[in-house]
Amino acid sequence: MGKTMAEKILSKKSNTSAKAGDLVVAQVDLAMGQDGTTPLAIRSFEEMGGKGVFDPDRIILVIDHNAPSPLEMVSRLHDSMRNFSQKYGVKLFDVGCGVCHELMVAQGLVVPGDLVIGADSHTCTYGALGAFSTGVGSTELAAVMIGGKLWFKVPETIKVNLVGQLPPGVFSKDVILHLAGKLGADGATYRSLEFYGPVIDNLEVEERLTISNMAVEVGAKTGLIPPDEKTIAWVKQRSKREFEPVYADSDAHYIDTITLDCSSLSPQIALPHRVDQVSSVEEINQEIPIQEAFLGTCTNGRAKDIEVAARILTGKKIDPRVRLIVAPASREIFMQAVKAGWVEAIVEAGGTFVTPGCGPCVGTHQGVPGDGWNVISTANRNFKGRMGNNQAFIYLGSPATVAASALEGKIADPRKYLEG
Amino acid sequence: MILRGKSHKFGDDINTDYIISGKYKFKTLDMNELAKHVMEDIDPNFYQKVKPGDFVVAGKNFGCGSSREQAPRALLACGIRGVLAESFARIFFRNAINCGLVALECDTSKIEEGEQLEVDLVQGVVKNLTREETIPTQPMPPVMLDILKEGGLVEYFKKHGSFPDL
Ligand code: SF4
Question: Which chain A residues are within 8 Å of B98, Cβ to Cβ?
């Protein structure tokens, strides 16, 4: 019987013929850590007696979660990463470079067919390039930094067919929110997802990243998209590494197949405090006033996301009761937004920009909401307390929905700003 | 390895933001400090209630969300010895074992708040001493039991210098 993408990549990296359910020890191509998880990994590394790293070129550290540092204690933790990077010659992206997951793909580090681990749950994002990538904890990151290997349970795979064509004003974020609502927060636990269909084919690579990014929100280990010509051209533009894309066999075994017709999909909103409590914008029949709008994160802080928000906001003013905060996912994206005039359009409209990085996503700085506030955000999680205040209510939507809502001061349908 | 303690009952989908909020975990590696804020957003008095050796008992998908290893470590630091749940999110499960926190899948529907539990890891049996009931558990993969027996991955590495062989 044939193999899924996950089975094939894990077979290749473990030199075995791995099937779902097997435990394998595999060679990891890249290991990533960010400033919320790496300081603990460094401590574990030292406690484990680590004397060196397996390959300095295959370890990437990023200071993005709490950057620039808001506190002296955080500055000390950041320095521990800088010292580690210097001592072992490991690449470090410092304050202002951007969100770890954006850098891993846009800097040409990850290529199709790779096996990547990261001490961050959204490491699954690189599945959009056809890499098996998954989140681990700090101590496991330490073990990989020492030995370059980790054990994996080979997952079963759910095949997701996205058929039809996305209507105007509806985006890849709406697709994955809709899927999260259907599958539930644990609908794919321990499993891998493989995405197929015309909706995927028509999306640009950066839009596909949004889908793979949220695979973990349904519990999945990774969310793989088979590399097509677009992926290969996108990666070749950014990376000098040689690579060989991996595809599932035609007779691969899937534990389940889900088909979603996206032709009549409307903008989707995840309601507080669950990512899988999803409703279409029309179904929300009461007015939900908002006090903060956030555009950014590893899910939706990319050029297309800022562009669509700028398009909606150009020549208009946001509601004066709303604070609109934008965190570009990287310095490159920020510069692109400056040159294209998107920054000007958004700032003129009343928005504000913060450092490229995670921004207010995880509640450590730069935009903690007040008590009773409603926040509309492009992030991937709306757990209670996620943005630093457990008295706030977080709604998730696409960048267009966030921009339209900032304009109207309430959760709004973006389609009227985009059609025609 | 036989463990005894009282249960602290929670529902489904307890995420790692609830276990330890991001606003604390980025500030310090001092787990005793983090321990004071464990479960704070859903049970503000949790830290005061826990006695060393107690168990967290939960429903489906325990530990979903962020990959923060601070979650199992802070639970350990506040005295929790193990988590029994209907199911776990995979990163939490790995992290728990790697930190030496017992994580066992079993039917938790018949365990209530404050009941006395006994867990035999080697036999794979949970006993509800309050109700005199025995609950079977999913057998733990040997590789995990090996790590757990050593007290976590750091201890395992110190002793063996690498991963357990499969
Ligand atoms: S942007 Fe948010 S979800 Fe993404 S890595 Fe940063 S904190 Fe995590």
Answer: 137, 139-140
